[in-house]
Amino acid sequence: MHNFDSFFRERLDDLKAEGRYRTFADLERIAGGFPRALYRPAPDAAQREVTVWCSNDYLGLGQHPRIAAAMHAAIDKCGAGAGGTRNISGTSHEIVRLERELAAFHGKDAGLVFTSGYISNEAALGTLAKHLPGAIVFSDALNHASMIAGIRNSRAEYKVFRHNDAAHLQDLLAAADPNRPKIVAFESVYSMDGDVAPLKNLLDVSERYRALTYLDEVHAVGLYGPTGAGIAEREGLAHRFNVIEGTLGKAFGLIGGYITGSAPLVDFVRSYAPGFIFTTALPPAIAAGARASLAIVRGAGELRRRHQALAADLKRRLAEAHLPVMPSESHIVPVKIGEPVACRRVAAMLLEQHGIYVQPINYPTVPKGTERLRLTPTPLHDEAAIEALVSALTSIWHDLSLPIAA
What we know:
Elements: H1 4-18, E1 27-29, E2 36-39, E3 48-52, H2 65-78, H3 86-89, H4 93-105, E4 110-114, H5 117-131, E5 136-140, H6 145-154, E6 157-161, H7 166-175, E7 182-187, H8 199-208, E8 212-216, H9 231-234, E9 243-247, E10 257-261, H10 263-272, H11 274-277, H12 284-298, H13 301-320, E11 333-336, H14 340-354, E12 356-357, E13 360-361, E14 372-375, H15 383-399
Parallel strand pairs: 3-12, 5-6, 5-7, 7-8, 8-9
Antiparallel strand pairs: 1-2, 2-3, 4-10, 9-10, 11-14, 13-14
C-alpha cells in the first residue's frame, strides 16, 4: 500500500528546505482597535499585542460600527445562514439589494455576487471563455491566480501578453483569426508590485479588435475614483468595460466577490457558471454589511486622501532609511529582500522582537529572487506606527547584513 503521508511529509520538507513553507500567525483582531491585534505564539502561550502591517482591510472598515450594526440587525431579522445555494433556497433580499447597488456603483446594468473574489474570477472568466464558440483569451502575464484558473479550466485557447504591454497585446490580437471571439483580461492594480495598468491603452487595442474586456478591480475598489469605484472610474473609462469584477473582502472589509456588466452577460454567467450554481450563497448578514460598507465607501473621499498620503509618507520614510522599497504607483508598498529564507527571517524578527506582523511573500506568489515584504498602510496607521516600523526594519537590516538601497 502506498504511504501517502510519507509523500506529503517529503514534499512539505522540500518547501521548508526552500524557505517556502507557509505558517499562519494566530491572531485575534481587536474590535475598534485596528490595526492592533492579539498574537498567540503557541497554543498555550499568553497573547500579546502586535501591529498589523499587511492586512487587505485597506481602509480599516472591517470593524466599522455602522457595518457591524447592519450585520447584527440582519442576523436578528434573518438568522445566521443563507440556507443553501440560491438555486435551491432562493435569494435573500439583502443580496438582491446588494447586487443592484454594486451594478449602480460601477455604472452597469446588473451585478452578481459570489462567495469570494477568487470564485467570481474563476467562475466568470471560465464560463465566458468556455461557452463563447472558439474563444481566445488574452491574459496579462501577471494576472491573479484566480483569473488564470478560470481561463485554464475553460480549456479555451489563450495567449499571454507581456505585463501592461498594449503593443504586445495588439500584436497577439492582430495575429488571431478575426472571426473568433476574443476576451482580454487584466487587472487595474497589481497586488504584489503595486503598479497600475494603462487602462486606456489596453482598452483602445481591445476595442479595435472587438474583444470583450474583463477588468479585475479587487485592489482598487473603495480606494480610487470620486466614489471609490476603482481606477476605471478615476480614469472615466468604466462605461467601456464589458465586465468589472471586484471583491468585498478588501477595502469593503468583509468577504465575497462580484461581477458587474450588461444584463444579458451577467444573467448568462448566473445561468451557466458551476462556481455560482453549486455554491452556498453569502449569508444575509454579510450582504447587509456589504451594503453598509458600500454606503460608507461612496462618501469616503477624505479617508481615501488620508490613505494615499500615508502610503506616500511610508514610501518616503523607507527610501530615506535606504531600505529597498520597490517602485509602486498605488497604496501597496513592497520592500524587496530577494531570498526566501531571509524573507521569512525578517518577518519572524519583526513579529517576535518588535511586535509587528508582516507576512513574507515568497514564490510562487512572486517570482524567485523577488521575495519581499508587502506593506499595506491604512488611514488608521499613525506616525508612531510608521516610526516603529521603519526603525525595526532598519535594525533588522543591519543585524542580518542585508543589502540596502543606493
